[in-house]
Amino acid sequence: MIALSDYEITVLLLSIKVASISSIITFFPSFIMAYLLATKNFTGKSLIDGLIHLPLVLPPVVIGFFLLIIFGKNGLVGDIFFSTFNIRISFSWIAAMIASSVMGFPLFVRSIRQSISEIDPKIIEAAQTLGANKIKILKKIIIPLSKNGIIAGFILSFSRSLGEFGATITFAGNIFGETQTLPLAIYSSLQDPDANLIVIRLVGISVFISMAALMISNRLNK
Amino acid sequence: MIIHKSLNSIIFNNYLKIIFAFFILFSETIKANEDIIIGYASSLHNVMKEIIRDYEIQSNLKLKVGMGASGNIAQQIIRDAPYDIFISANKKWVDYLEKHQKIKERYLWISNSLSLIGSIKSIENFTLNQNERFCLADPKNAPLGIYSVEAINALKLNIPKNQIIFLKDAVSVRYYLSIKECDYAVTYSSDTFNFDKNIDIQSIPLNLYSDIAYEIGILKNNKQTKHFVNYLQQPNVLSKLRNHGFIIN
Fold first, then answer.
1. Quick check: B51 and B58 in contact, CB under 8 A?
2. Which chain A residues touch B185 with a CB distance below 8 Å?
3. What does the pLDDT average to over A126-130?
4. CA distance, residue A176 to nearest chain B CA (Å)
5. Beta-carbon contacts of residue A75 (< 8 Å; ≥ 6 apart)
6. Does B100 touch chain A (CB under 8 A)?
7. If we measure between CA atoms, which residue out of B207, B83, B91, B229 comes closest to residue B151?
């Protein structure tokens, strides 16, 4: 067992905190959105579908820039927060979490949507004729049968947020102990001539976490 | 749908031609070029754009540029980035490259000074409100950061650690000031050139930090690089730099 230094522990704990909170928070809107997209037809569906996928196709720095415009001190939402609650969102760990959530959202929606649309509609119809209400159908049929998609979504958005770089450095900065997650720490150390060993150790840590996440998801999917 | 299909079949039937066309298109860029590549400190960004534009018109040469914290560019050079000329905002990073036998020749060039940004009434009783932020360049790689920390220590400014935001270079300090994410900052006086009128700027006395000396390092010694470095020392270029707030020795 290699002992981790205080620096590595701080970076690691922050990364896990940001990644896990952001994927838990993203779960609820993702599930609702995936459910709507998989089961309902409404006007503007393809527009919403496109908007959801924007973070996947846009350069992450662009997302960071949008977030800075929206949540910055002068931004639309940031201004309200600052004047009413005296809270500044940008350059805090909450900013890092928002950035990861936005980047992970499309991945989450995609995998849940996939598994909801694979549910045989006959099962739901049967449940309806047997008198189950919507909440019961959701609890007893949709959630259990889309379990694999939900788990895959969790793992995907968790890993996405562990790897998030562009949006985070633009919107949340690179502040040690506050917003410096693993990729940012690796980036910073890469620019320090005396930190080659730290780079290798941090890279090792991030490979280890990602592999662990993948293996856990494989185990849960069985 | 029909349009889609026919487009697909056109691409599918002609993919070899398309790949070939791409090769022809980009072969222009694959050709070995004789341009000069210059890496410079980000604080030179605005003025360098003008200098390079003028030089290109005058010399018919194409210049390629990379900009960033001097330390970052030095790191890239150590990892064999193909820069021909390196302009650093301090001596340290040129020394560092010289130690690694990357520098062929070096020249002292111009100087700069520091300014304190933000409404500060008295430096002795300076306190930050709970939600205010003080931005500094990261002293690890940006020379501006090193000078700023010296100046802040000399001024005995009392800034809580968790309210300091370290940004990667002089240009990002300027950008985050412009969108008001930073309430206070230390930046180069040359970067306060054409700043918003509502922002308070105080210059910091020169004796409170070490000399800000820009150095030019030549990494590849040839006619083109020599010519450009000579051009940088010419009076009209120097006066342009003076207009941008740099100090000409």
1. no
2. none
3. 91
4. 9
5. A68, A69
6. no
7. B207
**HEC assignment per residue over chain B:** CHHHHHHHHHHHHCHHHHHHHHHHHHHHHHCCCCCEEEEEEHHHHHHHHHHHHHHHHHHCCCEEEEEECHHHHHHHHHCCCCCCEEEECCHHHHHHHHHCCCCCEEEEEEEECEEEECCCCCCCCCCCCCCCCEEEECCCCCHHHHHHHHHHHHHCCCCCHHHEEEECCHHHHHHHHHCCCCCEEEEEHHHHCCCCCCCCEEECCHHHCCCEEEEEEECCCCHHHHHHHHHHCCHHHHHHHHHCCCECC
Overall domain count for chain A: 1
Q: What is the mean pLDDT of chain A?
A: 90
Domain holding A189, by residue range, is: 6-221
Domain membership flag for residue A1: no
Q: Phi-psi bin for A173: left (phi > 0), alpha (psi -120 to 50), beta?
A: left
Distance CA B183, CA B14 (A): 58
Q: Which of A68, A175, A190, A191 to mutate to test the interface with B (most CBs of B within 10 A)?
A: A191
What does the pLDDT read at residue A115?
Answer: 93
Can you give the CATH number for the domain in which A207 is found?
1.10.3720.10
User: Is it true that domain B33-249 has CATH number 3.40.190.290?
Assistant: yes
**What gap in Å lies between CA A35 and CA A134, rounded to an integer?**
13
d(CA B37, CA B86): 9
Is A166 an interface residue toward B (CB < 8 Å)? no
Domain residue ranges of chain B, discontinuous segments joined by + = 1-31, 33-249
What are the CA-CA distances from residue B225 to residues B35, B216, B219 (Å)? 10, 11, 9
Considering the domain boundaries, does residue A174 fall inside one? yes
Would residue A133 count as lying in a domain?
yes
CA distance A222 to A107: 21
B49, two tokens: 């754009």
Q: Give me the mean pLDDT over the A119-131 stretch.
A: 90
Which residue type does B171 have?
Answer: V
Q: pLDDT tens digits, residue range B188-246? A: 999 887 777 778 888 899 999 999 999 999 999 988 899 999 999 999 999 999 999 99
In a domain, A47, yes or no: yes
Q: Residues A23, A29, A31, A36: is their CA dihedral positive or negative?
A: negative
